[in-house]
Amino acid sequence: MSSAVKILIGVSILLTISCNNKKQKSTNENDLSNINLLTQKESQSESMQALLSSEPEKISVDENGCIRIKDYLIIWPFGFKIIDKNNKLTIVDNEGNFVANIGDKVI
Question: What is the reported pTM?
């Protein structure tokens, strides 16, 4: 097994653990403290993109506050964050540009 595969497996395990920790949820579903927006640790000069599905799938927040599309845990690029914009949980890039809202359907 190559070292790159071992690193990928290790990172996947850590991310799974961090998103499986139960935390106290507030009664406000738009409370940003309930959300774990997982991002890359540092900026990358290259990145991979993949088609998740041939059909639009909803961006959702699971019971642990992790953002998922379908059953996939999403790791967002460095600098992305989630904000409350007009009472919607909105994901923006490192320059504050709109990416998506929680609840949007994406491919």
Answer: 0.72
